[in-house]
Amino acid sequence: MQEKKYFTRMGDGSIVHMTEAEIREDMKAGMEDAVSRGKISPLTDEEFEHLYEIITMPGVIVGVEPGKQVVTTSDSGSDKINTKCGIPTDRAINAMLHERILGCDSVDIGYSDYNFKTVKGVAKREASVLKHALNRTTMPLFYGAMPNLGFYTKPDGPVDNWAVLLPEGKIKEAMAAQEEAVELAVKDILYVAEQMHDVGADGINLDTSGAAGDADFLVSLKATEQIKERFPDLHVEIGMAGEFVLGMHGKLKYDDVRLAGLYPHKQVKLAEKAGASIFGPVVNTNCNKSFPWNLARVCTFIKACTEVTEIPIHANAGMGVCGVPMCENLPTDAVSRVAKALIEICKIDGL
Q1: How is 252-311 classified by DSSP, letter by letter?
Q2: b vs e for 216-241, b when ≥16 Cβ sit within 10 Å of the residue's Cβ?
Q3: Which CATH code, of 3.20.20, 3.40.50, 3.90.1310, 3.30.70, is assigned to 79-280?
Q4: How large is the C-alpha radius of gyration of the chain?
Q5: What are the respective helix, strand and coil percentages of the chain, to the nearest 5?
Q6: Is 321 helix (H, G, I), strand (E, B) or coil?
């Protein structure tokens, strides 16, 4: 008799069918990879079995029991209808659609060029867009953008490009350029935050933090600290770009902790120290590995994150992160299993 095979996927979204033994083997390998890289504890036997049940549950969409739902936050959520669906509506209407039709718990009002350096030049106009949306919705509205430290490099920005300097062996110059860019970026974020606070923003979303390495992550931490000092009632969400902080500088520290090399469970402690209201950890999806491998690895990392923090954890569960396949149209069978596993096993506070 042929052994039963279960429908599942690869990290790129392609369909595969795997036996129970194959699924368990991949889950164990994914979990062990997270344990080895992050120096964290593995899932318990009970959690491992629960995750196996979630992965192999029949049905396209799975869900949590009533009462166990979590809230959602979004990055640049207000542009999804017009960009993804091609329906020309302004951001205030998009926010209303997300609230009243799609049932979202919050929305991020972001500029089309989603970075703070660009937004600074149109900040007052963007504040009027946010105010317009706030007047027509009840749910919390964030204003979001990326620190995107690369925008501060020449020829478009004022500082030398460390990606050019490093291959030339100009290490000190590359480090100095990043340090200069950090101060410029923090100043821009604080200016934008002030404009949004003046019109009643519920929060600022520092999205894709760390995308340009440890200096980029430092921008979010320092900006958060200064925002909370000046505007204590303005919430700050830090959403990460990747699971591992790249050491493009290598020596930068926050609260006497070196930023290069940090995984989510250590990133969150610094976000907490800076005054962040919400932390969005990321675990990268490996397209060449199976969904069971990826999800077991994700749960191991995120569980370690939720166990050490006192601030809400809203795991980044979008395309190519936290076990969600890396493909344009996300398969609901995989996305719903990711959400269920993160809620029930990792005890996250939101998505």
Answers
A1: -EETTEE-TT--HHHHHHHHHHHT-SEEE---B--TTSBHHHHHHHHHHHHHHHHHH-SS
A2: bbbbbbbbbbbbbeebeebbbbbbbb
A3: 3.20.20
A4: 21
A5: 45, 15, 40
A6: strand
| Residue 215 CB-density burial (10 A; 0-12 exposed, 13-18 middle, 19+ buried) | buried
What is the pLDDT tens value at each position of the chain, 351 positions in all?
Answer: 688 999 999 999 999 999 999 999 999 999 999 999 999 999 999 999 999 999 999 999 999 999 999 998 887 665 667 666 777 888 898 899 889 988 889 999 999 889 999 999 999 999 999 999 999 999 999 999 999 999 999 998 999 999 999 999 999 999 999 999 999 999 999 999 999 999 999 999 999 999 999 999 999 999 999 999 999 999 999 999 999 999 999 999 999 999 999 999 999 999 999 999 999 999 999 999 999 999 999 999 999 999 999 999 999 998 999 999 999 889 999 999 999 999 999 999 999
Spacing of C-alpha 274 from chain mean position: 17
Q: How many CA atoms lie within 13 A of 245 on its CB side?
A: 31
Give the Cα separation of 281 and 264 in Å (integer). 6
Domain with CATH 3.20.20 in the chain: 79-280
* CB 247, CB 218: distance < 8 Å: no
User: What number of CA atoms fall less than 13 Å from residue 209's CA on the CB side?
Assistant: 34
Distance, in Å, from the CA atom of 31 to the CA atom of 306, rounded to the nearest integer, reads 16
For residues 237 and 76, what is the distance between their CA atoms, to the nearest angstrom?
Answer: 13
> Model pTM greater than 0.90?
yes
Amino acid in the structure at residue 113: D
